[in-house]
Specification:
79% helix; single chain; 191 residues; 7 helices; mainly alpha
Length: 191
C-alpha cells in the first residue's frame, strides 16, 4: 500500500498545501510584528484579482479564449489560484471579526484543495497507472487487476468525479465572496 500512487502523490500535495497555510500565518505574523497589518486589507483586492485571473483556464477550456495551449492555461490557473489564495489568507489574517468572511475563507481553502487534487493528482495518477499496467503487460480491465492495481484504479475512478463537487463549491465560494464584498462596501466607513 505504501507504494500506491495515492500515497506517493498525496503526501507531497498535503505538504505543499500545509506550507501554503503556514506561509500565510507566518507572513501575517510578520506583518503584525512590523506594524504593517493594514497591508492585509488590500491583499483581499489583489487576491481576488488573481483568482479572477485564474478563470482564464475555464475561458480557454470553453473556447472563449482561442489562443494558447490548455497546458499553459492550467499552469496559469494553478499558480494564480495559489497566489490568490495566499493573498486572501493574508487578507483574512487571524482575525475573528465576522462569520461570513471566515466561512468564505474556509470554503476558499476547500476549493483550492479540491482544485489542486483534481487537476494535478488525477493526471499524475492516470499516467502512472497506465505506465504500471504497460510494464506488467496487463490490459486495463477490472477483471485482471491484483490488489495494488485495484486501489490505483479505485483512486482514479474516485478522483474523476471531483469536478461534480468542485464546480458547485466554486459557485458557492463566489457567492460568499460577493456577499462579503457587498457587505463590506455597504458598511464601509466612507470618511
Amino acid at each position: 500500500m505504501w507504494k500506491s500512487v495515492l500515497i506517493q502523490r498525496t503526501v507531497p500535495l498535503t505538504v505543499s498545501y500545509l506550507l501554503l497555510i503556514i506561509a500565510a500565518i507566518s507572513l501575517d505574523y510578520l506583518l503584525h510584528v512590523a506594524h504593517l497589518a493594514w497591508i492585509g486589507r488590500y491583499m483581499g483586492f489583489a487576491g481576488t484579482a488573481f483568482l479572477i485571473f485564474s478563470f482564464g483556464y475555464s475561458a480557454r477550456k470553453n473556447k472563449l479564449i482561442r489562443n494558447g495551449t490548455m497546458k499553459f492555461f492550467l499552469w496559469l490557473h494553478c499558480k494564480a489560484g495559489w497566489i490568490g489564495t495566499l493573498m486572501i489568507l493574508l487578507h483574512s489574517g487571524i482575525h475573528f471579526n465576522a462569520v461570513l468572511p471566515w466561512a468564505a475563507t474556509a470554503f476558499m481553502l476547500i476549493v483550492t484543495g479540491s482544485g489542486h487534487v483534481g487537476q494535478y493528482l488525477l493526471k499524475k495518477i492516470r499516467d502512472e497507472v497506465k505506465i504500471k499496467m504497460k510494464q506488467l503487460g496487463i490490459a486495463v480491465t477490472d477483471d485482471n487487476l491484483d490488489r495494488q492495481q485495484y486501489w490505483d484504479t479505485l483512486t482514479i475512478k474516485t478522483l474523476e468525479k471531483w469536478r461534480t463537487i468542485h464546480m458547485p463549491m466554486v459557485s458557492l465560494l463566489m457567492a460568499l465572496a460577493l456577499i462579503h464584498i457587498l457587505s463590506i462596501t455597504f458598511f464601509l466607513n466612507w470618511r
